[in-house]
């Protein structure tokens, strides 16, 4: 059986919930906290970090760490990491994928559907990111 998730993709932090026995439950992040920092980082070795690990590396690797990307949704903003251009939807999809993986680890079930709470102005671009994650 698969689960549906609800996501709050925030500018600073994000969280995910599932319905368990008719009640919404906040899914703990991989770090154990109730929220996941909305931060994506790339190590010098090319590894992608999401959440708390990305936030930690921002101090020593600021040029390869992206935060507050939600502010750029719907704009032409991009970031170049190692010659690869990332748009806000792509970075957001990385955060969404981490939230999905956290929910799957928490429930022990696959996640095939999700809904993101957001402003009407960003719904289209966030839905594109969510569609990419659920593929």
From TrEMBL:
Mind telling me which InterPro entries this protein's record contains?
ATPase_NBD, Heat_shock_70_CS, Hsp_70_fam
Source organism's superkingdom?
Answer: Bacteria
The molecule here is called Chaperone protein DnaK
Family indicated by similarity? Belongs to the heat shock protein 70 family.
Where does this protein come from, organism-wise? Candidatus Onthocola gallistercoris
Per UniProt, the keywords (alphabetical) are: ATP-binding, Chaperone, Nucleotide-binding, Phosphoprotein, Stress response
Which GO terms of the molecular function aspect are on file?
ATP binding; ATP-dependent protein folding chaperone
Protein's job = Acts as a chaperone.
